[in-house]
Amino acid sequence: MAEPLLATRRGDSSSAGHDADPAKTVVTTPGEPITTTASFMRGHGTFVEDETVVSAVAGVVERINKLITVKALKARYSGEIGDVVVGRITEVAQKRWKVDVNSRQDAVLMLSAINLPGGIQRRKSESDELRMRTFFTEGDLVVAEIQSHYSDGAIALHTRSLKYGKLRNGTLVKIPPALVQRSRSHFHALPCGVDVILGVNGYIWVSKHVDMETIEANPEEIYSSKNDRISPDERQMIARVANCIVALTRHFVHIHETSILYAYEASLQHPIKDLVTSDISSDIALEVRDKLQV
Q1: pTM for the full model?
Q2: DSSP string, 136-203
Q3: I need a labelling partner for 108 at 20 to 30 A (CA). Which of 13, 142, 153, 256 fits?
Q4: What is the CATH T-level fold of the domain 84-223, as seen in this structure?
């Protein structure tokens, strides 16, 4: 698993010199020196010039042990087995759904790779195929896990768990996939009463909190398309967390549970609608960076 790198401001001369520490660099530009330390190995998105590891693309520096790589900010999501992704159903086909997961081509969710209402475990029949649009239909948002890759590079998904499935009661935030940090869990219940699902593909779902016990008690509702009642206070909390994520993204800060919590705390003194303005978002991002570096 990639070790997170601490954030610094773009253009900060202390992080752009030939003696820059790769553990303190996040966003680089093509040709920017990353490190001169001989113990590091260069990976994708880098090259060596005069014994210096240099960035070949504009992107985020990541370090896995002694391997230095740069993930391009504008690159399409490629997908790794086990990744949690958020996607949108684009087509209902024969025994499968096609899902937009911000990749080069739509992912595939097979009818055999989902849970039936009520948690029934059995072979899918022709009657299930006729009812496919009662499970997922075009435009539905889903959270799933990457199961495998097809020979043509397409991604195969599955939702064989109650924590996966149709998404409701929230809003979608799209960010560059390179800014989402992989972790043990991508499902987070924030203290403010908001749930956040960090899709590794750059699609983030922010919604009102729902207890897993409630889902287990009503498994037939996992395919419901009707939102629950959301109070005005819950709507404000959802909007504040979503705008905090947008503010961090604009200043190239890694998105994970801790950075979102720090941004939320820093945002409480500002109106929700002002969080995405350039001055306030910059102040929030700088405060989050300072706390992450402590």
Answers
A1: 0.80
A2: --TT-EEEEEEEEE-TTSPEEEEE-STTSEE--SEEEEE--GGGBPP-S--EEE-TTSEEEEE-TTSE
A3: 256
A4: OB fold (Dihydrolipoamide Acetyltransferase, E2P) (2.40.50)
